[in-house]
Amino acid sequence: MPANPTPPAERPHTVYYFGTCLVDLFYPEAGLAGMELLRREGLRVVFPQDQSCCGQPARNTGLFEEARAVARTQFRAFPEPWPIIVPSGSCAGMMRVHYPQLFADEPDRAEAEAFAARVYELTWFLVHALDVRLRDTGEPVRVTWHPSCHSMREMGVTDEPKRLLRSLANVELVENPRERECCGFGGTFSVRQPEVSGAMVADKIAAVSATGAAEMLTGDCGCLMNIDGAMSKAGTPMGRRHIAEFLMERCHGR
Amino acid sequence: MAADGDFAARAHAALGNAEVRANFRRAMDGLMAKRAAQFTDPQAWAQTRARGAAIKRRVLARLPELLERLEARCEANGIRVHWAETTGDANRIVLGILQEAGARTVVKGKSMVSEEMHLNAFLDRHGITAVESDLGEYIIQLAGEMPSHIVMPCIHKNKGDIARLFAEHIEGQGYTEDVAELTAAARRVLRSKFAAADAGISGVNFAVAETGTLVLIENEGNGRLSTTLPPLHIAVTGIEKLVETLDDIPPLLALLPRSATGQAVTTYVNMISGPRRDGEKDGPRAVHLVLLDNGRSRVYADAELRDTLRCIRCGACMNHCPVYARVGGHTYDAVYPGPIGKILTPQLAGLDAAGDLPHASSLCNACVEVCPVQIPIADILVRLRREAVRPSDTPAVKGAGAKRAPLEALAWAAWRWMYATPALYRLGSRLMARFGNRIPERLPPLNRWTGVRTRPRFAGRTLHDLARDKGYDDA
Ligand code: SF4
After folding, report:
1. Long-range contact set of residues A100-107: C-beta below 8 Å, sequence gap at least 24
2. Three-state SS for B318?
3. Residues of the domain holding A145
4. A217 falls within a domain
5. How far is residue A194's CA from residue B15's CA, in Å, rounded to a whole number?
């Protein structure tokens, strides 16, 4: 069920940033762009050096003890009551929706719940907590949006990223009628069922390409790694990026 | 991690069949659009499904007691009730009833539980011929196949397939792809079977405890014929098909056909409350109800897994499943395919037999989003993955621990150590970012990634390091 969060009661002065392990290794520029967007809204952005991973890979494999051990590491790394902003709907969903379940019978259940309640997906936070106003400085371009399954179905992020894109004067957003269909990543699913996953991502790039957009944007680097890899292999000329990087470039010239 | 064997092998074959793939894709697109047109108001949808879930939750909370009530009410209505622990028991009970009545031919309404029992083959071995009367079931019976969908059993076939089957199996029938003609041909054959049948066998959509009523919905009228025309009617169903009162029926009927086929109502809603009474002109002389357990009590015993039993078999989860749409129902090699099959089959058959099914999912939650009784399918999939690697003396699921692999466990222990030790993680990730691109592509799991994708490129420097360089505070 979507988490259906409410924004913090007051506009925060300081926020935490949880970069995610995938961004850390493969897309640090996207992670940094998200932090810059927040900083340019006047927030103090804290990046705890003790953070690692939300624990989703272990949880989804059924290894709950391992997942809890890694989750507890994050509890310790984010001790202050500040909002935790995540540039990924999937990792945010793990923390907001699944931490309470994972710790339901644990002594530190209250801590897990309090942590979960502070977690926000980046684009949702930009729209609902900060009410950002973006000023487009880029050339005209057509883009399409790829929503991740967990951003939509766990974090309740639906129109927020599109709202940001539509607010840019020179950006035309082209809808993909099959956008709600999974890209086939699914973490370990992609290597446990490589052929099924491969068929899914092939259909995904066909649908994304059919929009005729010059670039596909997304808010999840799991999907991005999958779609980007498949597009590279297939020689698809389309651009693909995390939305944070795109917004930074359009509005702040980098 | 290992590539998941059996399912992956069957998926390989299915993905190679462009025609079947196209059949599924087209059919699922149509079904999704039809369902969406039925639930246009998100708030109304949220309320209706919450009510549906509450009804099933309420009945499951008192299942043992209400099953006894159902038995008493049915018996009072003249419906004989039989309890079957296993599918073998259920088959023997059905055979016994048929033999006692001297029945040789049976017409069947659609019943997934009878598929679970492999009833047709069993009866055949004992000299009794059972003919499926649901058009889709009839077609796959001719083809000698299993259903590929729980609501539309022959959805994997297109007009041409059916035309060929009919031309081959129905006397005097030439090859035609005209749907009206094909339907008429089937009707002709089935009419004569109905008239001659010694008994009818059907499933049940809802069994009402308070009144002892069996509710059966359908579109073709074959369900009504098989339960009223022959002198004997045997209904087979799982113990979870119970609802408490007649008032529970309308809310569930507002969900089932709309979720299944995008119809507001089905053509027929049959309410069976007993055999023909004195003075009545039609209806069977005797009605029996066989209640099958087949592992359901074990599912019931676990508070979390119990949610599985809320299922009203609408099939919406498979219609919306991106895996199912691509590999089709037969790839699951089980009576119940798709998301519901992925959670139900391993619980009924055991994780030793079907432990790869819970992993055949990207956990995209498309099924969870449309399930009319709010079954947390993705959470149950993960729970089953957990049971599969957790040996126990008192396992919640048959075959628990069957998928435990020592090497994999070791890899995860190392993962845990690294990701739960910040200094180690920073060092490890820094090394990976720096040197990861040198990992040979032929090593697993990379080799299973690069079939259709280029390898992910490590960035050189981690976000941890970039953030520190850019002056972001650590605390
Ligand atoms: S699990 Fe839900 S969606 Fe799937 S068949 Fe059962 S009731 Fe329908």
Report:
1. A101/B379, A102/A55, A102/A59, A102/A64, A102/A67, A102/A68, A102/A71, A103/A68, A103/A71, A106/A68
2. helix
3. 134-250
4. yes
5. 12
The tally of CA atoms less than 13 A away on the side-chain side of residue B13 is 10
Answer whether B340 contacts ligand 1 (Cβ < 6 A): yes
A200 Cα to the center of ligand 1, angstroms: 22
Which helix H or strand E contains A73, and what residues bound it? Answer: helix A64-77
**H or E segment and range at residue A46:** strand A44-46
Coil, strand, or helix at residue A184?
A: coil
Rounded CA-CA distance B264/B48 in Å is 13
CATH of the domain at A204: 3.40.50
H or E stretch including B327?
helix B322-327
CATH architecture of the region B68-146+196-297: 3-Layer(aba) Sandwich (3.40)
Optimal mutation site among B323, B453, B461, B469, interface A, most CBs of chain A within 10 A: B453
Q: What is the pLDDT of residues B104-146, one digit of tens each?
A: 999 999 999 999 999 999 999 999 999 999 999 999 999 999 9
Contacts of A25 in chain B (CB under 8 A): 429, 432-433, 436, 458-459, 462
Same domain, A113 and A183: no
pLDDT at B470: 96
Q: Are strands B213-218 and B268-272 parallel, antiparallel or unpaired?
A: antiparallel
Dmax (CA) of chain A: 54
| Predicted local confidence at residue B5, as pLDDT | 64
- The pLDDT value given to residue A47: 98
Residues across chain A: 254
Interface residue of A152, A192, A203 to substitute, partner B, most B CBs within 10 Å? A192
B445 prior amide bond cis, ω within 30: yes
The number of folded domains in chain A is 2
The side-by-side arrangement of strands in the sheet containing B213-218 is: B242-243, B206-208, B213-218, B268-272
Q: Is residue B316 within 6 Å of ligand 1 at its C-beta?
A: yes
Q: Is B348 exposed, middle or buried (0-12, 13-18, 19+ CB in 10 A)?
A: buried
